Amino acid sequence: MGNSKSLTLICFIFLLTLMTACGGESEKITLFLDGIAKDKLSDVYLDASADPNIINLAISVESPKQHFSWHKAGGVAYPNTGEEMTIKTPFRIASISKTLTATLIMQMVEAGNLTLSTPISNILTDSDMPDHFTINEIHQINGVSHGESLTIKQLLNHTSGLRDYIAEAPNNSAESYSMAALQILDLTGIQPSGISKQFWNSESLLKYFFSSGMNQHAINTPGENYHYSDTNYLLLGIIIEKLSGMSLADNYQADIYSRSQMNASYLEWYETNTNKGPAHHYSNLAPYGINENIDVIASGLNTSFDWAGGGIVSSIEELNFYVNNLFNNKLFQDIDTLKKMQQTVNVKDDNFSYGFGLKRKEYQLAHKTVVVYGHDGAWGSGMYYIPATGTSIVFTLNQTAPQKKDWLLEILRGLDKALLFTAIN
């Protein structure tokens, strides 16, 4: 196998030499993509699939300008039938949903329904809050309330300072557990509570946020720092519904799915599912000291808590349609709207910056520095786009445990070895 690959590489180098004399740069890149890139991407796929905790996965790379398309999927998506994973198989996209929610908000900005500087108190009132709570009390720090001053922009780019109702404990005490921790304790039977089977909607999620006391322990004052929080997108979802007079699910259908060939995508738990449901995904709990790779679907975990921040089910194929439409200005009236989404704030101690439902990552590769925009999801998914080359990368590993590698980086390295990024000025 090793000799075969070496021979292939030698042949491609020889052909490249010929093309240098008689062809252009694009011909050279296309040649390498058809050979080296496919080999390198297949290696990435095999490396990821070798993890015994990854039961199914799918990866797709599309670069239309170079006439390059590669995708591979495998593993068992539905254990009860043995059906294998494909790029058409639906899966829970988790926080990639935030990009779609931000898209809806930016469409509303274009329509003049709100602005980025609009305080949320101009839209939401005390009557939209749980009983006995006010909109101003949603953000308290050191006993001072700031809720009325929170802006749409601060929710979009996670600078509101609100605690994350899913991933964070209500306060900093050792006895305080996050919703995610309580769900794991319930699922494994360590601390049964029934929370893992509970159905959530926006009202009950907001009530949980207040009743847990999270509102009293904001991380920072509004606009001060970046702090990732699903609470921001919970509020954005509520705002979308109030301004549109339609459910969040119907907003996705009307303004994104119908315009992006996303015929099988849906907001799970909130609308009728017409297909066989999402592929089974897994959670290796070894990092938490529990020797078990849980089948999250089979466990019966009710993931309705994700809602506007992570509740969409889609597929590799349909996410590729969406991200290409987004970056080719087919979802907005004005190209400047996308540019606003791409304006980021710094993220301390991490390798990305954050815009409006979009992460910006910069990778220094062997040949070029490459900038990608997109989002990842806790269930092991990623959707990214490279504006400089018009390349989309979408994948799912359907595994929540931290990975040994940055799989996006591995994919980019493979494309870089195939000279894709040499076309970047």
Task: Offer a quick outline of the entry.
The protein is α+β, with helices and mostly antiparallel strands and about 425 residues long.
Count of runs of 4 or more consecutive helical residues: 13
Q: Identify the overall geometry.
A: globular
Can you tell me the CATH architecture of the largest domain?
Answer: 3-Layer(aba) Sandwich
**Alpha-carbon distance between the two ends:** 36 Å
**Low-pLDDT runs:** 4-25
Topology as a string of helices (H) and strands (E): HHEEEEHEEHHHHHEEEHHEHHEEEEEEH
- Major sheet details: 9 strands, antiparallel
What would the CATH topology of the largest domain be?
Answer: Beta-lactamase
Helix content: 25-40%
Cross-sheet strand order for the largest sheet: 3-2-1-16-15-14-13-12-11
The tally of strands reads 16
Mean pLDDT: 91
How big a fraction of the residues is strand?
A: 15-25%
Class computed from helices, strands and strand pairing: alpha+beta
- Find the CATH superfamily of the largest domain: DD-peptidase/beta-lactamase superfamily
What does this structure look like?
It is a single chain. This protein has 425 residues and is of the alpha+beta class. The protein has 13 helices and 16 strands. The strands form 4 sheets. It has a 9-stranded antiparallel β-sheet, sandwiched between helices. A 3-stranded antiparallel β-sheet has the order 4-10-7. A hairpin with a 5-residue loop joins strand 11 and strand 12. Helix 1 packs antiparallel against helix 2 and helix 2 packs antiparallel against helix 13. The longest helix is centred in the first third of the chain and has 25 residues. The protein is globular.
